[in-house]
Amino acid sequence: MVKEQEVKDAYELAKARYAELGVDTEAALKAMEDFTLSVHCWQGDDVHGFLNPDVDLGDGLTVSGNYPGRARTPDELTGDLHEALSLIPGSKKKVALHSIYAVTDKKKELDEVGPEDFKYWVDWAKKEGVGLDMNGTFFSHPMVKNSMTLSSPEKEVRDFWIRVGKQSRKIANYFGQELGQQSVNNFWIPDGFKDNPIDKLAPRKRLMEALDEINEEQFPEENTIETYEGKLFGTGIEAYTTGSHEFYANYALTRNKLWTIDSGHFHPTEDVSDKFSSFLLFGKGLQLHVSRPVRWDSDHVVILDDTLVRIARTLVREDLLKKTNVGIDFFDATINRIAAWVIGARATQKAFLQAYLAPIAELKKDEENYDFTTRLAETEELKSYPFGAVWDEFCRRNNVPVGLDWLAEVRQYEKDVLSKRA
Ligand code: RNT
Ligand code: ZN
C-alpha cells in the first residue's frame, strides 16, 4: 500500500518545483475536478448488449480475447462499472450506452426500444451519481444489408434504421431530462463498400436524407445533442466509407450539431489534435472517442502515449474543452475488463492533468514574441517535472487508490465476483 504521508510530502515538493516555472498545481487540480469523462459501457461485455447478445459482432468491429468474467446481465455490467468507477478519480463522470443495452421486460426489436427500456440505467445512474450518454446501435443486426443501413438503396432497410435513430434520440432526451445533464447522442454507422463503387454520391445523399428525417423531432438542447462519427475505413468496407470525416464534419456544421473524432479512425500519420481548432472555429462542438489504433482501428486500451498527450494538450492550451466532450472507446477482451476501463480512464485523466501543469500563458507570449528557444527548452524540461506526485495527490484527494494500489482491488473483485461467472 502506498503511504499517505509520502504522497503528501511528494506533492509538496512537486508543488514547489512547478511553482519555479510559474505553474500553480492547485489550479491544475481544481481544473481536473471540472473535467468530465464519459466511460463507455461496452468494454465490460465485449459489445454484446442485452437485446441479441449472441449475434456476432460484425460491421467493422472486432473484439479479440476471451478473458474470463465478461458481464452478461444488466446487474453484472452495472456491478462491474461501479467497481471500475470507484477506481477512477474525479467527481464528474458519465457512462455511454448503446441501444443494445436496453433492459426490456419482454422481447423487443432493436427499432422498438425506447425510454421505458432504459429506466434501469437511469435509476442506476442516479444512485451512482453519473450522467448518461447515448449511441444508437447501427450494427450487429440482420437488417444491416450488404454493409448498409441508413444509406441502403432499399427503403425498408433505411426505414428500420431511421426508427432506431429516432428512438435513440428519445432515449437520450429522457436521460437529459431525468439526470439534469445533457446526454450526447453519438451516431456511427458502418455503411460502405468492400470494393470500388460506381456511385459515391447516391449513398451519401441517402444517408444525409435519413439523418435529416431522424432529426425532425425537436428536443431541448439542454437534454440532448447529436454528434456524428466518421471513419476512414472498416474491415469489409475497405474501398469506400459512406460516413467519411468530411461528410460528417459538413453535416455537423450545416445542422449545428457536434462532430465526433475517434482517434482510431484516421490514417496513422494524421495528428487528430490538429483538427480541433480547424473545426471548432466554425462548428458548435466536438465529441471525442479516445481510442488507440495499433496499425489499424484496433481499439486497444488507451495508454498515456504521444497521441493522447497531444490531444489533451491541444484542448487545454487552446481552451477548447468547453466545446468538447471527452469519451473513451476501446474494447479488449484479452485482459481483465475492469482493469481495461481503469487503465484507459486513468491514462486519459493523467494526460489532461499533465496538460494543465504548464505555464501556458507564458509559453503563448514566448511564441508571439518569436522566442521559440524558450518555447522548446521549457516544454522539453517540463516533461521530466514531477507530474506523478501531483497525479497521486489528485487520486488521494478523490479517495481512490494511489499508484498501483487499484490493481489489488481489481484482483480481489476478480476473485470474489468475476471468477464465479461460468
Ligand atoms: C466504431 C466506432 C464506434 C464504436 C462504438 C461501439 O468504429 O468507433 O464508436 O466503437 O459505437
Ligand atoms: Zn468510436
Automatic annotation (TrEMBL):
Binding site for Mn(2+): 265, 297, 299
EC number from the UniProt entry: 5.3.1.14
Alphabetical list of Pfam families matching this protein: RhaA
Claim: Cell wall biogenesis/degradation is one of the keywords in the record: no
Pathway(s): Carbohydrate degradation; L-rhamnose degradation; glycerone phosphate from L-rhamnose: step 1/3
MF terms (GO), sorted A to Z: isomerase activity
InterPro entries the UniProt entry points to: L-rhamnose_isomerase (IPR050337), Rhamnose_isomerase (IPR009308), Xyl_isomerase-like_sf (IPR036237)
Record keyword Metal-binding present: yes
Cofactor: binding comment: Binds 1 Mn(2+) ion per subunit.
Domain of life: Bacteria
Keywords: Cytoplasm, Isomerase, Manganese, Metal-binding, Rhamnose metabolism
Record's catalysed reaction(s): L-rhamnopyranose = L-rhamnulose
Intracellular or extracellular location(s): Cytoplasm
Cofactor list: Mn(2+)
Predominant localisation class: cytoplasm
Family, as annotated: Belongs to the rhamnose isomerase family.
HAMAP family: RhaA
NCBIfam families reported for this sequence: PRK01076.1 (NF002203), rhaA (TIGR01748)
Protein name: L-rhamnose isomerase
